[in-house]
Amino acid sequence: RAESAMYEAKNRGRNNFQFYTPERHSHAGQQLKLINALNFALERDEFSLVYQPQAAVPSHRLIGAEVLLRWHSSELGVVSPARFIPMAERCGLIADIDSWVFTQVVKQLRRWREQGVPELVVAVNLSASRFDDPKLVQSLVQVTEQEGVSPKLLELELTEVVALQNPEQALQTITDLRAAGFRVSLDDFGTGYSSISYLKRFGLDKLKIDKSFVDDLANLNATDKAIVKGIIALAKSLNMTALAEGVETPEQWRVLEQLGCHQVQGYYYSRPLAPEAFVQFVQEHYES
Ligand code: C2E
Ligand code: MG
Ligand code: MG
Ligand code: MG
């Protein structure tokens, strides 16, 4: 229907500014509702965090977790991050949301330490816009110092978009983050446009191979297998860890093991877990 509306609009001529259909109207209305609700989500305490365990290959040893944001809106119900994160980025709300996530994680790490939960590295997603903030590293360090948590327990995930929008600034920020003791990884690797030469200069700790390349691995998709193999080789030659995302089946795991992938994350090992369930998972799987 959207297509036919578009076709119709085209047929009405180039200078037609009356492209207004009920579909579009209700879509815009929905977006507006979403933005409004998102505006209040922080103060209404509607966000929560889940932790998805990550495992070493081939040992299956628990090595860390990625924290993922969940939003239960009082007005709209559960909204997926795939929907609200891009929206928050466009509306300028993402900086506050990402700082909230980071602070919650650091506080959680302090409480877990006090409770004697074994220490693990937690990876936190950072949106592109936060990289424009010259005080980013300083403000992250301040939170860790306030809570007495070592930056070594925190990994920051950035995307290729961040890295290439302003490579010189990204390089500086990554260098500063690592100098402060944080780990840095590149998320969704393979979906953006990374320049190999920058990759070398960035000095990242980890490449996260995007789920889209992992999906068809076990179906003997020769192309995806070659891509994943190439990414793993690249990571190794640049002294980085390769982690495959979205691993769902034992077959995918086996192919990744065969290709020499270092780490995996995905439903095969564990779904993202609420903090209590995550602690239980850690207690069952942690080997010192
Ligand atoms: P991401 O950082 O690449 O996170 C991985 C996504 O894959 C998560 O989706 C996770 O739940 C999902 N996933 C993990 N394993 C599997 C699997 O085996 N099968 C399938 N089908 N999915 C799997 P989620 O939680 O919906 O998050 C989507 C994206 O939203 C994230 O992608 C990330 O880009 C963004 N995001 C989530 N939390 C935050 C946050 O706190 N801040 C920012 N800036 N972005 C966030
Ligand atoms: Mg991520
Ligand atoms: Mg990812
Ligand atoms: Mg993703």
From TrEMBL:
Q: Where is the signal peptide?
A: none
**Locate the EAL domain: which residues?**
31-286
Name of the protein in question: GGDEF domain-containing protein
- The protein's organism comes out as Pseudidiomarina sediminum
- From-to range in the entire protein, with total length: 662 to 949 of 949
